[in-house]
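Wed. Picked up where I left off yesterday with L-serine ammonia-lyase. The coffee machine is broken again, so keeping this brief.
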Amino acid sequence: MGKLPSIFNDVIGPVMRGPSSSHTAASWRIATICLEMLQEPLKSAVIDFDKNGAWAPNYREQGTTLGIDGGLLGLEMTDNLMKKTEEVAADRGISISYKVDSFKTKHVNTVRLNLEGITGKKVSALAASLGGGAFEIQELNGFEVSIRGDYYELIFLLDDGIDIFDAIKLGLPELKSINKSINNGKTLINVKLSDHLSNDTLTMLKEKWSVAEVILLKPVLPIIAGNEQTVPYTTIESLIKYSNEHHYDLGKLGLIYEQSQSGLSANEVNAIMVNHVNIINKSIETGLQGTVYQDRILPQQSHLIDKAAKAGKILKNSIVNEIIKNVSAIMESKSAMEVVVANPTAGSCGAVGGVLKAVADELNASEEELIQAYFAAGLVGVYFANGPGFSAEEHGCQVECGASAGMAAAGIVQLFGGTAKQAIDAASMAIQNMIGLVCDPIADRVEAPCLGKNVSAAVNALSSATMVASGYNALIPLDEVISTVSSVSSQMPTCVKCTGKGGLAITKTACAIKAKLSSQMG
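Structure written out below (tokens, as returned):
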């Protein structure tokens, strides 16, 4: 591995609202950082998307405007005001407009932001959403940068002719990295830190080096980078070897991994996972209680499973019923803009949570056992994050529901009491079953066929875990399966990669649904 992903930064998370983590969560994070860069209240913003990019045809329907609006308004994702950002902006007298334009990009999910503050100060940014809520700000005010939200970012803006790069490097020994960018004769120096600096320290640095401006941007990811310790395994082969030597299951290995990545204690890491799992289970509860939201395709359906079982229309006392009910409830919460956990994405957030709760309930597993199952799932997701990642716009739904199926399968084996090798093999088998899966949301809402794909991923996870725990052979190692996902995606046409231009999204019925929704929303 190169720079190792974090379970909480890159796999299980973010905690969010909205239909898509790529669209909503990443855009909220980008906008939040840009607002902080402005250093004064926002007056207006113009946001644009490249006409040839993946976001141009669906940025409103898939929640990009929701995320950007919320970030620019300074709202937390869990704030109920996120459901009505346009009203909040109007009340505050803030103008936020969107348009499709033409500009050079490095990634299909690229956005430009141009902000103006109340005194006329301006900030421009070019940023890309990388999948699952991950992002990179690539330019700030014309300067090349690489900001991903996992560090404190110290920005020095220098007047012409001033170069204090070496002085900063010597004067801030705690820095993790330092980079310089030059634009039209001016210089921006970006220092990455793992600790906060006080306002007094920022003022002192500005005066000490006579710089035009010093800005500290706070991290927006939950795990701050730069505190990493050596992970005792990196490759899947070394992971299995380490597990055999120490007799650790995959849940234990996942906990050790995130401890190493975060620099936090076992108790601190465990507490974060407990919070995430509580939010996931709460989203199931919220969905089952009933959700309503105007701009969505499907009504509440999760309650229909118990109703049908009681009426004798379907199998009674089947764990499959519980899986479908749980997955549906999470997806309904997501589509109603309630708080969910992207796991590993919002579009695939139902599978892992839905099936792990169903299996844990069936086994009468303890909370601790369920938490360990999530660490097992998260560790599988780490290898996926370090491979193709979770961007459906690049790879199709095989990196969303396919990845979630593999994660869930590993978590189920953990609940079964299986070995790390069995959990890894179950993940391999589950992902094999979903390679090549296209992403074709109807009417650009992440509901259908997404709900069915989440349910299929969850049941696939259970069957794969059951087969491997029974002695079936997964045959192809997980690392080779993950590599195959990337090679297959390179052969898939762009139209079936979350663009709304292929698959079920362009059927006669889907087009009629989209037209109807568009007319209803004005």
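Quick read: The chain has two domains: 7-217, 236-520.
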